[in-house]
Amino acid sequence: MPFIRSKKSLLLYQSILSLVAISVCLVLILQPKEGWTAWVSRTLRSTHSTVATPAVPTNIQVQHNLKYDLDAELDTANSVVRGTVAVSVPEAPDTQLLFYLYPSTYKPIQIEQVEADGQKVSFQADSQHLTVPLPQKGEAVEVTIRFSTPIPAAGTRLGQKDGVWSLTYWYPILGVRANNTWLPRPQPRPFGDPFLMDLAAYHVKLKHPTGFQWFASGYPLSSQTEAGVTISEWRSESLRSFALVGGTGWTETMWKTADGVDVKIATRTPKTLPELQRITQTAVKTYTKRFGSLAYPSFAVVEMPAGTVFAHEYPNLALFSQEIWSWGTGEHWIAHEIAHAWWFSSVGTYKALGPWLDEGLADYAALLYIEAQYGHAAYKETIAQNWNLFRGEKSYSPHNYQAPVQVKEQAADQPYANFASETDYYYLMYLRPQLMYHDLRMELGDEQFFRFLQQFYLKNRYATTTRDRLEEALRQVKPEAVSRMKMWLDSPNGDLIQSVKDRFA
């Protein structure tokens, strides 16, 4: 018996060696040019991309009818804003509320006291989150938070420079929920918008030095001055957040659109005011025609001092740095920021979970501005230039234009947290969806294409939209075009370029 067992073992051993040898030969013979590792990665990603995975989870639990009542003072001598925010929640979703504290990269917001329905409560706070316990969930509650926010002497989103005070994400903001839990605050990068919040009604009072000009997310209610101090008051419904930019030194003008919207523009030097007025008037007229009327009663386009953030948007505010006029693409980016009044303010998104959704629409809108201002030939020329960038996998970032990107295996529909570089971010979140909308326009024709955008806009104003709603708007106009949108959003970048190159020839 021992001899028979050893003979069987020998035969089994020889068979295993033969199989290994055959496998090695097959691996060498069949190896793809790109190598097995790259092939496996591409295959897995391609398999995944056949099923659309929305950047905004379908299980986000939107919190409705929130209200913020802010009463604060800007202390310019000590570079701090102090105050209280009372947040009314109609139905508490949990036995604790989580608030995001966004200004943590300089000095965090200091939480001094918290009350729930008028009763002091213990709380936990670090540089990024405030957790407030509640006796029970499912009930209406008003949480009042006393806070102070240091303002850095810098040209940052929250900061002060050259006498201009930028107050953005400057107070505790209620977090966003999914899967019956609170999502953590997104971690910031040196680019993009790491922000999440639900819509809310706002009432804001701010005590500040007399003589300040203010540009705000809300509509002004009153301004009263006494003993060298002014108290200004604003209100708005259905805002994502409340931003304020104030100081002195602007030349400004205002007009009312045919739809009754007050549009204000302001520049740091009088000589650029006519050019900004021309850009803003053309952009507002074009976007109103192509998408629909602005959702809010006021909107401002404001030039900031040199050395501030290049260009950025807040509810009903479009801001850009003074240096933008020296950039070859400055006009495009001003038009882009104006477009965010439609695609971010009026139709909102959970920005950090899918930046492409509003950035792509805003950037394509800027091309519609080019078309309206300079003609269809200029539009086509811009598309050709941008396609060359896309085909060559070169950056679209205004700060690193034409720099190489590393995105061959990546899709467009992914969250902010996935990105480590600004070059890749601008390529996938701005350039790729911009070209997607041009491709869809060619597929649908102008009549159907703009009907698709108008229906999407009108059905999602005053709401937080998702990819699902974008696809549904397209499906209602031309169902077979949805697969093309999915290809643009889900395909690995290298595969997409090969799939659409003939359409841009």
Automatic annotation (TrEMBL):
InterPro entries linked: M1_LTA4H, Peptidase_M1_dom, Peptidase_M4/M1_CTD_sf
Sections of the chain in a coiled coil: none
Record domain Peptidase M1 membrane alanine aminopeptidase: where: 332-485
Domain of life: Bacteria
Gene Ontology MF terms: metallopeptidase activity; zinc ion binding
Alphabetical UniProt keywords: Membrane, Transmembrane, Transmembrane helix
Pfam families, per database record: Peptidase_M1
TM stretches of this protein: 12-30
PANTHER family: LEUKOTRIENE A-4 HYDROLASE
Protein name: Peptidase M1 membrane alanine aminopeptidase domain-containing protein
Species, as recorded: Effusibacillus lacus
